[in-house]
Amino acid sequence: MGEHTETVEGYVMSGGCIRKNARDELLENARKHTRDCALMGHCLESGYGIVTEDDRLVMLDPEATRQVVDSVEATDIEEGIRLHVTREAEDGRMETTDVEDIS
After folding, report:
1. Which residue, of 6, 40, 74, 95, has the fewest CB within 10 Å?
2. What is the tens place of the pLDDT at every residue in 52-102?
3. Which of 97, 99, 74 is nearest to 10 (CA)?
4. pTM, whole model, 2 decimals?
5. How far apart are CA 31 and CA 11, in angstroms?
6. Nearest to 102 by CA among 60, 42, 50, 63
7. How many CA atoms lie within 13 A of 65 on its CB side?
8. pLDDT at position 1 over 90
9. For residue range 6-25, what is the model confidence (pLDDT) as tens digits?
C-alpha cells in the first residue's frame, strides 16, 4: 500500500460528457448518465470521472479506464451507475487500484 490512499464513491461519467455539461448541472446529469453512453467508443477514449453526492468531481487516471469499463459492463443498472474507487498516491499522482460497483 502506498503512503496515501483515498476512496471516492459516486456516479461514473465519461470525460466527454463531463466537459459537455454545465458544472452546476453535473450531479443531476451524472445521476442519469447511461450505461450505453459510458461504453461508447468516444466516451471510453475520454476517460472517466466520479461525481460524488456532495457534487465533487474527481477525474480518474487513464489506468482506471479498463477497470471502470469492466465494472460498467458487469452491471445491470441502465443509468446512474455508482462506483467505489480506491486510489493510491504513486510518484506524485493518484493511481486507481480498485473499482467496485455499488449501484
Report:
1. 74
2. 999 999 999 998 999 999 999 999 999 999 999 999 998 888 999 999 999
3. 99
4. 0.92
5. 6
6. 50
7. 14
8. no
9. 999 999 999 999 999 999 99
Q: Cell 477514449 identifies what position?
A: 45
98 three-class SS: strand
Cα 45 to the center of its chain, rounded Å: 13
C-alpha cell belonging to residue 97:
487500484
Q: Residue 89 and residue 66: Cα distance in Å, rounded?
A: 19
> Radius of gyration of the chain from Cα atoms?
13
Task: Give the burial class of 62: count Cβ atoms within 10 A of its Cβ; 0-12 exposed, 13-18 middle, 19 or more buried.
Answer: exposed
Question: Coil, strand or helix: which one is 3?
Answer: coil
